[in-house]
Every structure is written in C-alpha cells, then in structure tokens.
Write a structure and sequence with these properties.
By secondary structure, the chain is mostly helical. It is built from three helices and no strands. The longest helix has 38 residues.
Length: 109
C-alpha cells in the first residue's frame, strides 16, 4: 500500500532504492577491501610499527563498514518507534510505509 506522501514518486523511489543499496552494500565492501590491502602491504613490508598501524586502521574501517551497513536498520527502527507513539501532528505512519516501500522495491526487469 502506497502512502499519499510517496504515491506519485515511483521513479524517484526506485532511484532512492538503488542509492541506498549502493551505500548499504558497496561502501562496506570497499572499506573492507581497502583495509585488507593496507594490512597486506604492512605485513609484506615486515615492519612491526606499520603492521600495528595497519591493524588499527583495518579495525576502524571494519567498524565503519558495520555502522554504514546498520544505517538502514537504524532508520527502520526509528520509523517503527515513532509510528508506535501515535502522534497526531506527524504523519508517521505514511513516512513509515513510504520507507518500507523504498526498501521493498524490486529492480525493474
């Protein structure tokens, strides 16, 4: 069921869905790959200080990747909690259904 707020935004919702998927999946993969490359370079150089720095940088990138991946879940959780409050002034149910529709859009075939 499409809400009034996002009912006429079909193509825009598809673009937003693509952008969210790129952010949600692409950025964590890139961060993990870059961290692995840095760690590999440090191990090959055999310098203990560089290995320690690379380990710390890799762990930080891994944490950032997890946080980026969790953003979609956090936004969904926030919309669920705000919608449960039942505020009359805010049309939270419409925004929640719009967000759900964005996340459930299947790519055009």
């Amino acid at each position: 069921m499409t809400s009034e707020i996002c009912g006429s935004l079909g193509p825009v919702l598809r673009i937003v869905n693509i952008i969210i998927n790129i952010i949600w999946i692409g950025i964590p993969i890139i961060l993990i790959i870059l961290g692995s490359i840095d760690l590999g370079k440090a191990v090959i150089s055999s310098k203990e200080d560089e290995v320690k720095k690379a380990k710390k940088a890799f762990i930080n990138r891994l944490i950032y990747a997890i946080l980026v991946f969790a953003v979609v879940w956090i936004v969904t959780f926030i919309f669920d909690q705000v919608a449960k409050l039942g505020l009359d002034d805010a049309d939270t149910a419409s925004w929640k259904s719009c967000w759900s529709e964005i996340r459930n859009i299947k790519p055009a075939s």
